[in-house]
Amino acid sequence: MPATDYQLSFNAVDSLLNTFKPLWQLVAFECEHLPWQHKFPHLAQKVWQLDDAEIDSLDMDQLQLVETLLPSLICDIKKHLHPQAEELMSQLSLLAITLPTHSINPESIQQTPDRSQKNNNDKTKELAHFSAHIKGRKWQQIVAFANKVDPQNQPNLTLLPILEWCAGKGHLGRLIAKTQRVDVISLEWQARLCEQGQGFATQWQLPQTFICADAFMPLDPEKPLLLTQQHAISLHACGDLHVRLLNLAVSAKTQAISISPCCYHLIQQSHYQPLSIAAKASELSLSRHDLQLPLQQSIIATPKQQKFRNQQVSWRLGFDSLQRNVRGINAYLPVPTVKQSQLNGSFTEFCQWAADQKELVLPSDIDFTDYSQRGFERQRLTKRIDLVAHLFRRALEYWLLLDRVCFLQEQGYQVALTEFCANSVTPRNAMIQAIKTN
Ligand SMILES: C[S@@+](CC[C@H](N)C(=O)[O-])C[C@H]1O[C@@H](n2cnc3c(N)ncnc32)[C@H](O)[C@@H]1O
């Protein structure tokens, strides 16, 4: 896509997110009612018409979620936001945006990485052995990512040594070392993962070397990590970690960069630090809590897991109402994670446990039935607030991705934003690929 198109897309998604901030930039468990119900009455009516099970299933499918809530949202836009209505309507398609796959050879994504037809059975066996200890979905991601960074499939790429950032056990780097026969350096800070990864590389006699180091360490000018003649890659390095890679690669004028970002909220600062000129000029200010929104897509859960989740939220919120009254402080008090077994007892036992954790003495005359009911009602409310916020999760991720894309363009890179595998393999399936042009 030409540079201007990404900038136009950024402006559109930025405007959409700004206009509808009241619907998504909020902390559901702090609310006592739908905070936007007066401005969006049709939407409020719609979410209360949905039963809890419907909400759970809609939440898993962005397209269905948008299709279900959009008619009510449009009614509200026409009524209350009509000066901007036309422009807003055109932006609403961004709620269900999907990225292009842009595979030069779409079939290659499904293929095993070694494309030779000869000795196919042997190769398949060898790959099965090669990937034996990697979980199915992870392996699918790795194969798809490796295909996208292979110059044999992507003619716009040249064969370059690889730097794999935040490599874990370096499975991706190892597959690339095997398929491309290039040198791979894998950076990872957990010594145990480095040792295991190095062991696999040695076993397979592959040119992969681990550097066991902190990605945030000050760089030694004598031994630069990032080079111009290099392809820097990163699969699912969290928040600041992939941003660090982008900054280092840009400074080193690294020829090719391929990243799939994740966990945008894992940042050192309290608020998101935009990278591009466009995002720096945006009115949006994103807290860590806001940055979790793109990750809030329920994965397929069994009815039992759903029940457990609902009960847990309900009890936590019931205890929250209780502790606010007991402490006389109207503020949330974080309670540690609970084990499933803790929810087999009674709500009263749960409250006693939570109070112990927080060294809170509970008076003897507490009406636990009342707090249990309050928790249940607050759980139903937060579910509806979250559902509406989730309408915007994809748009917010698009905003964050485009910030990275526009930044790289500003730094003289030709950039493509695509998906490297299906959403069902991982919802974090976006890939930013940048090639230095000047
Ligand atoms: C989500 S995992 C991704 C691993 C691998 N790229 C993959 O997709 O399987 C992130 C990795 O980053 C590593 N990591 C976290 N903080 C780091 C740091 N400061 N320096 C180097 N590695 C770090 C973690 O140990 C972990 O292995």
From TrEMBL:
It comes from Shewanella polaris. It comes from the Bacteria. The keyword Ubl conjugation does not apply. This is Methyltransferase. Pfam families: Methyltransf_32 (PF13679). GO terms for biological process: methylation. Keywords: Methyltransferase, Transferase. Transmembrane segments: none annotated. The keyword Ubl conjugation does not apply. Residues 137-269 form the Methyltransferase domain. One of its GO terms (molecular function) is methyltransferase activity.
